[in-house]
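Below is one record:
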Amino acid sequence: MNRPGDMTSAARAAILGKPRFDEGRNARARIGFVLIPNEQTIEEEMTRHMPPGVGAHFSRATMPREISTKSLSHLRGSLAETAARILPDDGLDVICFACTSGTVAVGEEVSCAELSRGAPGAKATTLAGAVRKALAATGARNIALGSPYVAELNDNVAAYLGRAGFNVVASHGMGLSYDTQMIRVAPGYLVDYARAIDTPEADTILLSCGALRSIEVVDEIEQQLGKTVICSNQAMLWDCLRLAGIDDRLPGLGRLLREY
């Protein structure tokens, strides 16, 4: 057993005089997420599913409590400032606006431009953009869209998908106005919900909104329906990792993260 007196004064001085460093916890990539104020799902899910060596870091923009096109449009004014607060000394590899309906309300290009103002060294992306890229990567054409949104926001997302070249063959919103409701939608219900919105014409099911705990059941839904299922947080995780140069395939999170 080593005792304090066993260490020579020279060895002790060498240890105390020069700390040893390793690569730290975020050696592979640092990814920042700009959240809306009441978001309670994304932070935990991104942290849980990040591969080893990839850091997830968060800050919250400002907006009114109710989720509507008008309230979400307020986010534009704080995106840059919020992004700038995330690791200002070390910098980020990727910065993401982590709100689907917020991206649609502010605009994808405007959102990315504001993020880049706040984190100029990072690749900028958005949750809606991640979904668009995931749908394209998996070859989706005809989409059954489900969301927790009120009709106006659900229609906005459907229109966004249409402009991106996808055919929305079915669309349903749950009519929820607050994140505090959306985060409580049971994952087991989402399995039944996906089955209910599915149609024979749909080749892909899209469960939109980062507040929903869809990532927990995306594999189960794919197995039941025999179709590709894209959900917001799964798509965002995939997009941010790939933008950061992380090509890890992650099991249990659907076809997207398993094959692409």
User: Anything to note?
Assistant: The mean pLDDT is 93. Strands lie at 29-35, 54-60, 94-97, 123-126, 142-147, 167-173, 204-207, 228-231. The chain has 13 helices and eight strands. The radius of gyration is 21 Å.
